[in-house]
Specification:
Structural class: mainly alpha
Low-confidence stretches: 1-13
Strand order of the largest sheet: 2-1-3
Distance between the termini: 48 Å
Number of helices: 13
Largest sheet: 3 strands, mixed
Amino acid sequence: MVTNAKEEVSKDSGIDDSKRILFLQDTVIVTVRVGSGEEVKSWAIHKGLLTHHSPFFAAALNGSFKESTSNVVELIEDSPEAFELFAYWLYTGDLAPSDLAPGAKGLPRIACLAWALGDKLQCPVFQDRAMLQLLAYHKREWFMEDTIRLIYNISPQGSKLRSFVVDVICYDRLVDRSPGIAIDGIMAVEDFNRDLLDRLVKFDRMEDEEDPCDEGSPYLRVLDFEKNKVEWDIE
């Protein structure tokens, strides 16, 4: 049985493909139930994959909690949509292309929820995959008020997700690339006004600033941006 809780990653891909077959040989299957009420969805996943990539699952399934004997984990506060991406990523090393394809409905929302799920599950590679999608998204679209509110509701203070959205808003407005986001409408969001003002103070010399979406690396935890960045090949 595979019980290693330490995720081995490379900056090239974040997944050690040579180990995946070993994890799939684990005969223990875990049921993961995500969401609440009528929104609950269930997945059957190899325990070895879960415990290798997520210290959260390793602690739940290998420790003294009831989940270690029942092999059932309930994530009632989390998004089934985001966990679907996580399950797909566990088995493929990538995110489900249909859910995050250019123009997909709700792309920034599902990518943000996936990032937050990765934070809870202590899975930085999965977080980086979600962030790479957000970086690609903002090359062609803008983050609107509902996305900004969501980010501040699901991410902790000082997180890379918050830093990213504040940086792109500052940059877009300073280079006049913003579609006219009503900043006044989101200044009431807790912590956002402070983060925005702090960041604006640092824009002392505009010529020294680069597009955050071209920079990328400051918002990733483990992956190499240049080797993993997402390019949308659309008109």
